[in-house]
Amino acid sequence: MAAMCRKKPEKRSRCCIEKMMLRCVHYDLFIVVFHYTTNKSNIRLFLVYYQTSKDTDKMDVQDYEYYEARAEDVKLEDITSSEQNAAILAMLRDNDPDITYISIGDMLEGFFDFVVREGDDLGWLGYFIGRSKQVKTLYIGNFLDNLKMDAFFGGLGHNRSIQNLSINIDLGERFQSLVPFLRNNKSLSDLIFTIYDIGLQCARNIAKLLGQHSSLKCLNFEQADFGDEMFVEIATALSTQPQTEELNLSMSNIGRNGCVALGDALKGMRNPNLVTLDLGRNDVDDEGLHALVAGLINCHNLTSLCLNENELITGAGLRSLSTLVQSDNCCLEHLDLEQTNMDNDGAAVLAAGLARLPTLKKIHLSNNRIGDQGLQALAGGLVRCNLEELYLSSNNMLTQSVIGMRSLGTLLQRTNIHLLSLCIDTVNDEGLQCLVDGMANCCRLKKLALVYNHSITAVGLRSLSSLLLSERCSLCTLLLNGVNLDDDGATALANGLIGNESLKTLEFSRSVITERGRASFSKLLCDTSSVNNTYFSNHTLEKIGGYGVYAMPSNIVEYLTFNKLQNCAAAICKILDSHPDIDIEPLLQWKLKCLPLVVRWLEKAKPYLGYTYMCEAEETFQCRELSMVYKFVRGMPLLTVDGYHGKKMKDVQPKTKKRKFDLTL
Fold this sequence. Notes:
flat, 19 strands, 17-stranded parallel beta sheet, alpha/beta
């Protein structure tokens, strides 16, 4: 190389030398370039080192101008490794409105997945994403250690359209390359880290990135598996993000120290906008929850708090939580305390706090140890809430509850609860009877889930039928999957649904229903004994059965299909299908007054011919019409003939004389 430097170069024109210099930026190595000065005889030789990704943190202005100058003429096949990657760059270059999502990685299969291989120039990818106005979501996954990664992040920093950024790779020091992007892109609202087993250095790099001012609304670290030491770094940085509205930290191995750090960060914020906090499936204990509550009291916009599956929380922790829900500015609407080792004492402590929380709409209390006394306390506290959904599944001690179940039924009457979940060995026949007795006048419950309550038999279902028969019943969905439903239970449900106009879904599985039970459902949906009984059959149910149930008879399937039409249309289809020869005799008592009504009904029924099982042809339907008219004529011949001759006589009579006819037909 030294010898090469001593060699006198050939003279070249200024234009030629500039072109050569522009070509040099393509190579990541020592490059020999000529420097042309005003003195034509003084042509000097320099060694220039083009910076690699190890030496720079961002694309400088000169590099961006380089891509800008060549964007229209660059051959995409020369800078990509596949036709798909070239197509993605073409769509980005042309601002195609269809490309709103891009995923970058080494093992992807989607249409908008840019699979990085040898031969892909990430600098161009970053440039085209940077100038795109259509891309809303960007996913950065694992990819090769490409030498143009710095150029990629430099180009990305120019983007102003991306709203969601998901990172699935430890970028190391390159996390700082995202600083211009976070700072300048005011559209960015969601930042998601799906990096498993985040180490201490990675946590520090992320914390440093989050220390920048941004417009982030959502931060998601689900399944990050921090551990307290790493999360403390993150929590400290969160204090600079008071505008964040959603924080997902579920399944991140956060314990007491992490909760203390997060509580301090929230407490130190000025007017935090936090709306949703998810700390489910962590290692939060009583002391950690106490420290966290101190910060949450400062979050006046918090409406959703998830602490599910933190089994270290006991009554002491729930007492701290009770202070939060009783605070003047608390506006929680959703509280998830599923599987938190809650017993009767804990339920009583929580209920005392919930009595002062009128904003609460949904609460999860499943998989705990709540018994009869705890349920009574909860029913008394929740009555003052604007509750809409209540989950109490897998509280096995409630199988012995009697007074508590009756209190729960009363709660359903006095609140706006429209969903109640009592699944998995939570209620038996006696408890179900008490529940129904308590909710006799309930008119708001829309969905009742009794899944996998193996102790419920036909006796309990018979008591449930009284609820279905109530005129005020508004139940739309009844879930009985896993309940031992036999013929007696099916008959009890079918009898309860006679006249019911609210229930659309009756779901059950693993049933031992035989032909007798299925016949009761068939008669419920379409009683073929008469046209009147068919008309007054159930036209509301749209689903019966579910997974693990033997195939329903074809007639039941057909009736359920009819019920998905409008109520009137369902009745018409069932009458057409079940009564090919409609009996007119019951209508003759009204004489000819009913004939126009019958003709009008037939006209209304005609559009539904294709819905019937027989797919009746139009010619066949015309025969029905003629047959019904003929039956009227045959059943009232004198009235028909008199009416005809009367009209003739009326036409020939002088206008001065009028003949009186019997018009009371």
